[in-house]
Structures are given as C-alpha cells and as structure tokens.
Amino acid sequence: MRLRNSNKRKIFNDPVYGFITIPDERIFDIIEHPYFQRLRRIKQLGLTHLVYPGALHTRFHHSLGAMHLMSRALLELKQKGHKISRKEYRGALIAILLHDIGHGPYSHALEHAIVKSVNHEEISKIFINKLNEIFDGKLKLAVKIFEDRYERRFFHKLISGQFDMDRLDYLKRDSFFTGVSEGIVNYERLLNMLEIVDDGPVIEAKGIYSVEKFITARRLMYWQVYLHKTVLSAEYMITKVLERAKKLAMGGEKLYASPALEFFLKNEITLEDFKNNEVLDIFSRLDDYDIFSALKVWSDHNDYILSYLSNALVNRKLFRIELQNEPFEEDYIDSIKEKIKSKYNLSDDEVTYFCFHDKTSNYTYKPDSDNINILFKDGSVKDIAEASDQLNIALLDKPTTKYFVCYPKEITV
Amino acid sequence: MRLRNSNKRKIFNDPVYGFITIPDERIFDIIEHPYFQRLRRIKQLGLTHLVYPGALHTRFHHSLGAMHLMSRALLELKQKGHKISRKEYRGALIAILLHDIGHGPYSHALEHAIVKSVNHEEISKIFINKLNEIFDGKLKLAVKIFEDRYERRFFHKLISGQFDMDRLDYLKRDSFFTGVSEGIVNYERLLNMLEIVDDGPVIEAKGIYSVEKFITARRLMYWQVYLHKTVLSAEYMITKVLERAKKLAMGGEKLYASPALEFFLKNEITLEDFKNNEVLDIFSRLDDYDIFSALKVWSDHNDYILSYLSNALVNRKLFRIELQNEPFEEDYIDSIKEKIKSKYNLSDDEVTYFCFHDKTSNYTYKPDSDNINILFKDGSVKDIAEASDQLNIALLDKPTTKYFVCYPKEITV
Amino acid sequence: MRLRNSNKRKIFNDPVYGFITIPDERIFDIIEHPYFQRLRRIKQLGLTHLVYPGALHTRFHHSLGAMHLMSRALLELKQKGHKISRKEYRGALIAILLHDIGHGPYSHALEHAIVKSVNHEEISKIFINKLNEIFDGKLKLAVKIFEDRYERRFFHKLISGQFDMDRLDYLKRDSFFTGVSEGIVNYERLLNMLEIVDDGPVIEAKGIYSVEKFITARRLMYWQVYLHKTVLSAEYMITKVLERAKKLAMGGEKLYASPALEFFLKNEITLEDFKNNEVLDIFSRLDDYDIFSALKVWSDHNDYILSYLSNALVNRKLFRIELQNEPFEEDYIDSIKEKIKSKYNLSDDEVTYFCFHDKTSNYTYKPDSDNINILFKDGSVKDIAEASDQLNIALLDKPTTKYFVCYPKEITV
Amino acid sequence: MRLRNSNKRKIFNDPVYGFITIPDERIFDIIEHPYFQRLRRIKQLGLTHLVYPGALHTRFHHSLGAMHLMSRALLELKQKGHKISRKEYRGALIAILLHDIGHGPYSHALEHAIVKSVNHEEISKIFINKLNEIFDGKLKLAVKIFEDRYERRFFHKLISGQFDMDRLDYLKRDSFFTGVSEGIVNYERLLNMLEIVDDGPVIEAKGIYSVEKFITARRLMYWQVYLHKTVLSAEYMITKVLERAKKLAMGGEKLYASPALEFFLKNEITLEDFKNNEVLDIFSRLDDYDIFSALKVWSDHNDYILSYLSNALVNRKLFRIELQNEPFEEDYIDSIKEKIKSKYNLSDDEVTYFCFHDKTSNYTYKPDSDNINILFKDGSVKDIAEASDQLNIALLDKPTTKYFVCYPKEITV
C-alpha cells in the first residue's frame, strides 16, 4: 500500500527484519522531527547492556520495527478481505510509531526519582497531540487510534492489547540484541494466522502452538532479561542516585548537569506542567547522554552517597542482590542496614541509598495480558488458556512475585 | 585450555558468536578495570548509527569478540600440533583484548581536532604498559606480543597483520549490527584452514574461495558502511564542531563541557603528555557521552558556527556530500563557498566550517593489508593475489580514491 | 583433543553447526564403511517432507551431528576439570555415531509391517558388535558404552538419557530443516552449563530457563512436527501398504521389488535371524530407495488395495485424519467402514487398509524423559519439575493421548 | 494481491524464506498434479550431497521458492507504480513455477547418457503445454510468458535472464542447504532496488554493491559447489554407469530397472517422441528413486564395469580427479589408461568407463549472464561491468576453463 508518490521513499537497514520501508512522506517527516530523533538517544533496555553487552538498541529502532510489523499485519488483513483505507493504514502506522514517544531516559528511574507524578504514557499523549498541532491536524486519526477513541478498535488493540505489534517487536528485537535466543518469536507465522473477530485480533487455531511458544518465550525473556537480577540491581541503583541528586539539588547544592537535567533536578514537575510547551521542550532534550555523563562527573562529587553510587554504576561495581520467593525478614534487612551504617558511617536516612528491597511484580509484569484469543474453524473464539491442552496457562498467569534486597558487595551477611 | 581453576569463569552473551567465555581470572580482572570498562561507552563505529540505526555496538564488545577469535585460532593451531604454552595463550589473549584500549570517542574526529599529534595506537601502548604496572608486571608477555617484540611473531601477526583476529571480528560484528549481510564472513571455515608457516599465519589452499570472499566482503563493507557518504559527512562535521569548540575554548570562551572534555579543549596535549599519569587518567574519563552531551547543549550556544553544526548533528540535518572519482575543480569549491559566505554571513576563515573537501583513501583504507598467504599441499606459499585465478586481486588492491565536498543542504549549486 | 596425527582429518559442511570435524582416522574409517554410508539413504523424518518439504535430511547427517555435540560436551567437561582419556573420548564418539545404525527406511512402518518382532535398537546392537569384529575389536569400549556396561555411566547417559546429545541434535536439526523455528534450542548455552554429578549429566542452576525452553521446544516439536496429523496419516498409510505387499508376497504374488526388499517381504524374519551375517547384510542394503521405488511401480499393480495406497502416497493424496482427545465411538468407526466397503467394494478384512484408528502416545512419546536434573550452587540436585517455579512440568509430563481415525477423502462422514 | 477468495489458501514452510504462500487456487491445483509432485523426488543438486550432506533439497522446493520471489518482485514493481494485472501476476507465477518441470533425475547424466538428443528446456515446454491442455487452456498466458511470446517481455526476463528469480532462489537455497555461507545473497535488498526499464529488469544504482556481491557469490558458488571437483567426478561417473547400462540393455542384457527406466534404457528416444503422450507419461514416472535403486542392485551385476561403477557411487568410493588450467598431455592420459587396462583387464573401449577427461566450462557455466543493468538517478542505464569501479567484471566474465581427468584411486600415477 503506497500512500503518495514520493522520492522520499526511505528504507532503513534493520538487522532484525532486513529492511524497514517508510511507506509515506508524512511519516518520514515525523521521523525527522527532533521529538522523534531524540529516541535515537534512549536505549530500549536502559542498563541491561551491563549484563548483555549487545543490548544497546534504542527506542527509535524499536518504534520503526513496531511500525513495520503493523504494516505487515494490516497488509495481511487486507489480503484476507478486511477493508482498510489508506487513511486508516497511515493513521495506525503513525500511532504505533509514536507509542513510546513519551519515554525518558532510564524510564523506570526517571519516573521514580525525577518526574514522580508522571508516567510515560501520559507524556506520549501530550507529545502526539503536540505533533498533531505542528503537522496542521494531519495526525488526527492517529491520535484517535492511539487514545482508543476510533470506532474500529482493533487498530488500537494492535498497538496496545493482548496481542500487539509493540510487544511482538520488542520481544524479537530484545532477544536479537541480547543474544538470548530463547526469546525468538516466529512473528511471520503469527502474522500469517492473524484475523479480526469482534473488532479485536485473534489467531487462527492452526497457529495455537506458535501462540503457546510466544507466551513461553515472553515468560522466559522476563526472567532471563527484563527481571535479570543484576539488571534489577542496576536499575534500582540508578533510581537511588537520581533521588540523591534531586535531594541535593533541591537543597541548593551545585551539581554538574546539562541545562535540561538541571531543570528537572531543581523543580518538582507535575503532569499539568508538561502541557506547558516549554516544559515539554526541555523534557525533549533529556536523554541517556544527560544522565550518564552526569553520573561520570558525579563520581568525583564530595557528597559520599552521590559519588559512591555514581562510581558504582559507571565502573560496574553493582550491588549484590538476593532474590527469593518470600518477603525478607525485617530483622535480616535491619542487620544488613546496621552493618552498612557502621561501615560507611551513615545515618538512618542515608542507609536507604545503600540498602533497598522491593518485589519485582510491582511494576513491569502484567500476566493477564498474556491471554490471546484463538479462532476455531467453526467460528468460535476461545482464550488460549482454555484452548490449549498443552500449557497450563492458568498457572503461567499467576504472578510470580520475587522479593529482593540489594546492598554493597563489600558487606558480608 | 583452562588457565586456573576459578569461580570467576565468566560467560558473556554475544549475539554474534553466542557466547564468549573468559578463560582466566586475570583476564577477567583486566576486563573489570575502569580503563577497560570505559570501552563500553565508546561506539565501535562512531556516527555510523545515523545511517545504520543498529550500529551501536561498542569497542568493549569488539575487544571481547577479537579475544574470542584469538582463543579459537590458538586452539585450532594446538590441535594441528603447534606448541603453545599456557603463558603464550594468555599473553596473546590479553594483547588482543587491549589492542583498542587507546581509542577515544569518535576517534577520527578526536585525533584530527582535539589531540592532534597523537594517534590511538600510541595511546594503546601507554595504556597497556600502565596496566602491566598496575597488575604487577603480570602482563609482560602481553606487552611484548602487542609491541611485536616477542620472538614468535605469529602471535603479533594474529593481532595486527594481513589476516588478523581484529579485522575478522570487526567485519563480522559490523556486518551483524548494521544489518549489511553482504559483509558476513565465514570465520569458522577460515579458522579451520589456519596454519602457521614461517612464523606467520597462512590459509590452506582449500580455503582459497573463502579468502576471496573475505576480501570481497571487506571491500564491500568499506564502500557500503565505513566510507558510506552520509557517514563521511557526519564524521567530518563532528571533526569541524570539535575544532570550533577547541578554538573557542582556547580563546577563553565559556563552553559547557565535562571536566575531562574541558581539559582537552583548553590544552594542547602531546604524546609526551600522555605518559603523565594524570593526563592518561583524564583521557580515560572521556567517552561518547562527554562529546554528545556537549553537542546537545552547544546547539543553543551563541556562537553561530558551533550551534549550527551541533544542532545539525544532534537532529541529523547532515550536510549534502558530493562524491566523485576526480578532484573537484577549485572554481566549483569556490563558488559553493561564496554562496555559503553570503547566505550565512561568514568570513573566509569561518566558511571552512561549512564547506570542506577531502579524499577518502587518505586515512582508513589500507589495501595492501588485503594480501593473505595461501599454503599449498606441496608446502609452497603464495600471496592470494598470485594464487587466485578468479579475482583480480591486483586490481582490487589499487586504492580507489574518492573525492568529496560537503556543504549545507540549503545551498543550491 | 586430537587422537592421531593424520591427513584423514576430515571436515563436513553442516548448515546447522557450520562444520563438523572428524577428529580421528578410525572414526573416519567407520564413516566410510557401507553400513554407515547406507544412512545417507534413510531420511531422519520418513514422510514428514510431505508436509515440510525441507525435511529431507538423513540419519547420516544426524549421526554426525550428535557426534559433534558429544565432542563439544566432553571438551566442556574436560575444561571443567573432569578427567576424560583419549580412549574414552573416542569410544563415546563412536558409540553415539552408531546409535542409529540399526534404523531401517521409514522405521515405524518397517517395524510394524515387515520385521515385526524386531526393533531398531536391537539391530543397532548387532551392527555395532559386527563393526567391532570388522575393525579387529577396536570398538570394544564404544560397544560397552553403547550397551551401558561401562563403569562411568555418564558417557552412556549422554547418548541415551534424560539429557542426551541424540535428542539435542535432532531437535535442532529437525527444527532447522522443517523451518519450524519454534523448535530452536540454544544448545551452546546448555552445553556451557553441563556438569556431571553422581555419574550423570546435570545442568547448572543458572541454565534453568534454557532447560525450560528446551522442554517446551520439545513438546511443541512433537505436536507441530513429529505428531503432525498429516504426517501421522502418511506414516500409517505406508505401514498399511507394506502390510498389504507382505501379505501378497507371502501368498505367492509377484511384486516389483529390489532383491533386499523382496527378501523381507517373502520371509518372516526374527531378531535371531539378524545375528546371521547374511540377513544383516541384506538388511544393510535396504533403504528409502527400495521402498519408494517399489511404491511407484506398485501404483500400477492389479491388486486394488496395493495400487490405491501406493498411488496415494506417491502423488500425495493422503487420507483425511480426524484427531480428538477421547476415543472414537465404535459406531462412528463402523459407519465409516460401511461407507468404504460399499464405495470401494471391499470385504471386512480389506476395509482395514482404508480405515484405521489408533492413539498417538502409543509409540513415540516418552514424557518421563523430559526430566532433567538441575545443579544448585550449594551442590544439591533437583529434578527440573521440582526446581522450576515457572512451568508446571508435572502437567507437561502427563501424556496427552490423541485418538485418530484415517480414511479416504472421498468418503463423506 | 489475492486472486480468488478460496479456502485452498495454502502455506508451505520453507527454512529459507520462512513461509511460501500459494496465492491462488489454480496454482494450488497445478502443484497437486502428479507432473509437479514428481519434482519432490528430483534433487536440485543431483549427487552434490555426497560432498555437502545437507544438499538434499528438491526441484519441487526450488520451484516454489522461485515463484515466491517472483511474487515479491511483482508486488515491489506494483508499489513503484507499474501496472500489473491479476492475470499477468498469475501467469508469471505459473510460468516460473513450471520452469524446471522438464528436468529428469540427475539431469546432466540423463541428458548425456539416456535421452541424448533432448534437453530439459525442450521437455519443460512440452510439459507446460500439456498442462495447459489439461487445465482447459487456463495456462495460456503462462505459456506465452514462458516461451517469451508475451509482449511485456520483462516477465519472461524475470524467469530467465540476466537477473532472474530462478537464479536468485537457487543461489540462496543451494547456499542454505550446503551450508556454504559464502553464497548468501541479500535478496531482499536486491528486490527492493528492482526497477523495469526498456521492458527489462534493472537494479537502482544505490544497490550496486549488492549486485557486485551477487556476482561474486555466484562465482564462488560455482567453484565451491557446482563445479566442486568431487561433485564433478561423481556426476561423470553416474553418466558413465548409465551409458554402460544403456549399452547392455540395447544389447539385450537383462537389467534390474523400474518399468520407466527400462523403457528409456531399451529405446532411443528423440525430442519428437516426447510429443507422444505416452512417452511423456513414462518420463514423468522417472525420478531419483529409479536411478539410485537400480544402481544399488547393479552393484551385484556380473558385468564388471556396471557393478564396479555402481558400487563406487553407492558406497562413495569416487574416482580421483585431477584438475588444472591447461589440457592434459595425451601421453599422460594414455599412461593412465594403460595402467587401468592392465590392472582391470579391460579393452580399449572399456577403459573409457574408468578414465575420462573433459573441461568444465563446457556445459554449465554462462558468464555472459552475469551482466546486470544498473539504473542511475539521471535515468541512464549501464551494464554492471561498466558501472562498477570496484570489480573487474570484464575479468570475471572470462570463462575459466578447467581441465580434468578422473580415474580409480587404486591407480597410482
């Protein structure tokens, strides 16, 4: 489906799919906008590269990849007889292209330490509406699809739903760049089996094993990559270092920081503020480079906590992490804290930067979204949990909460 | 070959080879040193990711990969009956692990604009000697091999020679991460055919087609990736922006910069200075993050040239580049310069930041190193150029110089 | 580990692993023996290529592949400090190389229709003992390992056990040639995690997700490939056609057949007979070519049943197959048979060639062998079923019996 | 492009491309015809699997693959604005699907020894016309395209021309199944760059390096696979054994053979005879199974020459082959022949079965077809030989004739 005759037809090389073709001049213009180019400087997997050194791929590349899969999915549906207009095709592609536009650097850390009241989905909405303004309202349908206000809801569900192109791309891409081949998903087979029933995506029954494989792959990617214990430790450490920097900055301490980072360290910013053009603009200048180049300089700062944590991240002296199925005894945590306080000469407040504990199922893991509908030859539709006689999907669905505690390796417990 | 019983036996995931095993505790300690960890923050291919978005892999990963191939090569040679002691094995692995340790961020730009009199090979030597000191002289053999002072010279040649593990890894790795599958090299076959004759590596005659393929792949990677015209343009632009920044800094202008970058902007550093521990240490803190986070802030600087070029790199508004087989007419270059001067209101000195021309074979491309020796069954050895009746290697060897000129896309010529 | 200096060092190209090196002259001589060369003419997956057209790979290639993995596994174990002598290394490699030597063409069909009382494991034992004779007793240790009479039992378990190199190769290889990428197993990671405890293979705990993935992959390969319904139908049809041919041949009917096939059609052969050199030799001449070239000629035979079934296999007019979780009602089967009898004018006896029903868990599927032992850091060993909190291995273990019935597509039920 | 709403929409698994979709019921019916199913039993690369054991893929799979690429190419051209009707799309797909339908088993041997006056292109024409008859003239456009009688000649050129889908598939497929990764072609990039100028395919200039790589890959596949010396030896041996069998059969000797093979051994068949339905039908029953199962039985025949050669092929005791750039001296050949005659007690006539010499560029290698047209931005078109400044295509084009002589390894020269 080609939308306009154009010599801006652009092809990106992609080691994952070979090529990603930009089907349209307008889409190309959006990609060229600084708001989108900025995603080139935000790694998809934050600090995961400290464990898997190949995992340096960016949200830019992932967004292109998800758009590519959306294009493939819609062409497949057209082939199967579903009417999809050029406007809808373009709208859906733009909507998924921009689905991650609101992400900041090291999102988890940022959202917990710097822009506390704001999550990236909300910021994405503000960005996409702003881009619609910039492009004279030409992104109207994309906005509607993104916000799930378009009547044909399956477009939205392909962006964010039980079986969406976002996840299909990131599983494949993260698996590729980490080298964890267990996560490889046969996306071609899945797209070949894609159908729309009741305005939502379903997979034809002959693809049932591929769906099971997809779900297993996803689970394993969670435990092997997304919730890898060393990655968890690093992510909590960067949250802590940013918390410390913010506390110091709010207290008037002079800290090396880019102007954009300085703004967010020195001010409490709410979602409401983001609707202010200037704040959005400053946010759009913030990326991995601001954070990590600050960490490097902070590792020489005279605040012990700030420099200790910064140096630990820069030179990969990560905290030990203990992981278990039950919560840790309070006594145990306290004993660690005591040792830390005495060794590093810290106060009760300060020790929370050197010893932290949490559980993992809190924030990333949504098992209910594993469910995918299967379409049988007789037209009936069943949830995979019911359709599969091989995998105990019900069991898979049970959130497996893991409790962990992190502290410096120099501490012996 | 295992060197010491150790629970530090470490495995890195690598999407290129699957796994890279660190065979030895000492090697692991070197990898953990901040001098080596720093390579995690220096991209192997500089700004190439602006054209090939997957090309974000680092010199850290490449160094591990080259070490992995060295290990494979030496085990192969041992299997063929060559005596290689544990000490030699470890020495060779350390030497190749550290072969790129002296690289700075965006090496070409750095060496042309910031530390003008110094190239990365020289700095590597200083680093590796320094590490030998730090590790109590335990890297002595590695240093000798690296500096080609060890009597069995083939070890050195496998690091840097006509057929070396450095190049074998980077061709494979760059091909993998760019997605330019034309550069794929069948390294397993080549290593299987490896032999040592007259203290240098040769490939057995039955591998002749693989050698031809290797040479062709290398040529094509040069033209398709390393000397890609858009990449050339970006690399010259970053050189120019750093030149400008240095000029401003030397002139007393206040510039946003990390302490490490500031040091190199404000001082003329010679190779001799690097032998000073402090300078080496400051250099070791410099990486891609310093450069690119400065560019982002500089794009708002009130020096027009600095902010124009910085913004162009950050938001990928790269200069047009014209490429041809003959030098450009002086008149033509002058006419472009005139247009630029009038459009941007620049002086004769200043216009050199907006229009630059050069030829490509100047600095990266060493065709003579394509030659590889072939071992025939009768024991004779011939250069591939002579041994091959398929490829006109002589012709391939002829340096193909390309001349280019770069200038802003807003200029019409 | 090189066993003898030799110019017979031989490398096979293998699309799965790149290269397979034959480490030893004696092993090479065994490969050259007609008994082994014959495996070049026996497809690993019988008639599966009628569904997956790439699945033409042979038992020859699989046997080399399994030997390759055994070599990798033993070198890994040596690196971890286990003593393995050259003799043991060679013995284990020969034993796995020959583990499938007793397979005939379309094994399942052959064992059910032609050499009824004999299974391929028994014939393998006879072959390997015979080869030991031919090679002057030099295979003695291989025979002991193969028959599980060697005191270090882990060698045998790596050939045939809960986690063996046979299965590791065939899952990978079958997945590769069918193109069912769901079955891809990360064999490198698994081998990296291999250890020996209590004389049996275990996987280190950090490899637990890879083991879970291995088990899931195996399940999915079963349902998607090995027990694919169309493959089942074809395999039962070839059993039926051979049964018919044998019945006709025993009754004195003249049938086109190679001398080897004729021998087995005209005689009832027992395991005892195989110990007779002549019978073994005739069996060694039987391969896919004998069977399929006979089918082609038989499709013109004047016995209606023989020609109908032969033609159906040759021209891929396979029977419809119905599959369900419960046994079929006798009435339902009877009604199909009645329709067939009337349509094709068949007797009660004859209808069994046109309508057959069975269940699949009968003969190929051994869920108990899924269990793999996991080695924890504290030295304890647990079965994966117990060690995994992700997969309900217990549930996976439950044999999922499927019932099926096959009959010509021309019959409407 | 979907041609008819159908529940026969069929997908083949293909390890090379993932999936091959059959877009149309009519095409599916052609695939189901016994004439096409027969290609399942003819290996694409004849005896090459004796050197590369994975090379067992069939003309069936290749034909589907070439059809797949044709579909991809035509959709790409449509996207670029070329009008292609549904009828043309289907016609072109059928034409390429059937382009190899006239191949017999071990084509080279067959055409030299059994049906001497007839080549497979001629037989393909007869088959495709016959199928047009069978399908009531519905293949008329496919026939026209195949015979290059359709006015839009580019369709034909994509089947058989300087840059055709036949070759694109076989290079990729043969490379995949042999495991010779040197032959990998980036077909996606090439198809992305495809354009039509002057009714013929051209590649856009930015794809010039991919074209160079394609040409190099092709050259290397020739020397490494298609003209591999051991493969050459095997192919000439099978020609010789069939010649011998035909001579014996014509002389009234009783030989084990399937009825189809017997017919061609006992009769001299001309191209004219093929137009006779019966001959065509007998030919359509001939495949690899007939030839190889005969060889197996012939290895016990009492004609020494027949049994010696048959046994050598079955058990892979292939003749030694010497290869050189100049013709062999007659004296040298004669001396070999004398040794053979005395050792095996053969007459002057008979020795030609044990010693044969030839040159390789005779029959398979068409260097002129390497040329591919390149389309420049200014609309001009140049031959790659002229357009490339990297490869000396002119030199590549020079046919490299190799002379060889084959004889038993027991003969010492």
* Strand percentage of chain A: 5-15%
Corresponding CATH superfamily of the largest domain in chain A: Hypothetical protein af1432
Number of strands of chain A: 9
What does the main sheet of chain A amount to?
4 strands, mixed
What oligomeric state do the depicted chains represent?
A: homotetramer
Could you spell the SSE succession of chain A in H and E letters? EEHHHHHHHHHHEEHHHHHHHEHHEEEHHE
CATH level-1 class of the largest domain in chain A:
Mainly Alpha
Query: In the CATH scheme, what's the topology name of the largest domain in chain A?
Result: Hypothetical protein af1432
Structural write-up:
The structure is a homotetramer of 413-residue chains. Chain A is an alpha+beta fold. The first copy, chain A, has two domains: 10-228 and 367-399, Hypothetical protein af1432 (Orthogonal Bundle), CATH 1.10.3210.10; 229-362, Growth Hormone, Chain: A (Up-down Bundle). Helix content of chain A is 51%, strand content 9%. Chain A is built from 21 helices and nine strands. The first copy, chain A, has a four-stranded mixed sheet. A three-stranded antiparallel sheet of chain A has the order 5-9-6, with helices on both faces. In chain A, strands 1-2 form a two-stranded antiparallel sheet. In chain A, strand 1 and strand 2 (18-22) form a beta hairpin. Chain A is globular, with a radius of gyration of 23 Å. The termini of chain A are far apart. Chains in contact: A-B, A-C, A-D, B-C, B-D, C-D.
